[in-house]
Design goal:
Elements: H1 2-90, H2 97-122, H3 134-139, E1 145-150, H4 158-178, E2 184-190, E3 194-201, H5 220-230, E4 234-239, E5 245-252
Parallel strand pairs: 1-2
Antiparallel strand pairs: 2-3, 3-5, 4-5
Length: 257
């Protein structure tokens, strides 16, 4: 009987030791797995940061090249055209329409270049665009703009926030560029699932046969569609029945649970 009891005690001790070893082994495996996951996350984060840094450096390189190659040439065109217009008027001559067109085109090119360089450089720190900067954007739009916000305003996913800002930015740029002396309105509507953006103007600018304005340099209507499509949203851009132009976008922006 003592032998059987001793053997049972030995087995019990063996099971306890085995269970303990298994527990320690399982814990070590969990720690190792967590360490591997952390290393993978760190590698992914490092790769993302490297890609972001490369993108920033590329934007700055493009900005420098644009500035160095175009700013001087455009300035020369503006100065020469301005001098020619001034001399013609000083002599009492009619200014040729072609010369006025060159002067106006030079001024437009300078404005567009400054806007492009501003966009490229504003994203250097990664947070240069978002609806938090909407008031600043409207203030420098160069035309009367009213802003209306309906629904419960709330934080948005970063990609939605940036896309919304860029859509409003490009829509206002197009109004300034193509709509002549126009007024614009921006309406943002928040729901728990979506963000709706609508930009209207009362201008009489030119449109293409497809009902869209020439996009010109910059993001353009094509860029708007690409941004909205990438987020799974919808975009409408076209003339309004009563005159003017409208850009309307709906972006998925589910509120956090």
């Amino acid at each position: 009987m003592r032998t059987d009891r001793g053997r049972a005690g030995f087995y019990a001790a063996g099971w306890l030791i085995s269970a303990g070893v298994m527990g320690v082994t399982f814990r070590m495996w969990q720690l190792h797995l967590r360490e591997v996951e952390q290393r993978a996350e760190e590698a992914e984060r490092t790769r993302d940061e490297a890609a972001r840094r490369m993108a920033i450096e590329e934007r700055l390189r493009i900005a420098r090249e644009l500035h160095d190659s175009l700013t001087h040439s455009i300035s020369v065109i503006q100065v020469q055209a301005g001098v020619a217009v001034h001399l013609a008027r000083k002599r009492g001559e009619d200014v040729p329409p072609a010369l006025l067109a060159i002067q106006e085109a030079g001024a437009d090119a300078a404005r567009e270049l400054r806007a492009t360089l501003g966009v490229l450089r504003s994203e250097e720190d990664g947070d240069g665009s978002g609806l938090g900067q909407l008031d600043s954007l409207v203030a420098r739009a160069g035309l009367p703009v009213t802003v209306t916000v309906t629904g419960a305003r709330r934080p948005l996913p970063p990609e939605v926030d940036q896309a919304a800002y860029r859509i409003v930015q490009e829509a206002l740029t197009n109004v300034s560029r193509h709509a002549g002396h126009a007024c614009a309105s921006v309406h943002l509507h928040y729901t728990p699932q979506t963000l709706s953006i609508q930009v209207d103007d009362d201008g009489k600018g030119t449109v293409t046969s497809a009902g869209t304005r020439p996009s010109g340099p910059g993001l353009g209507l094509v860029g708007m569609r690409e941004r909205v499509s990438a987020l799974g949203g919808r975009l409408h851009a076209g003339r309004q029945d009563g005159g003017g132009f409208q850009v309307r976008a709906e972006l998925p922006a589910r509120a956090p649970s």
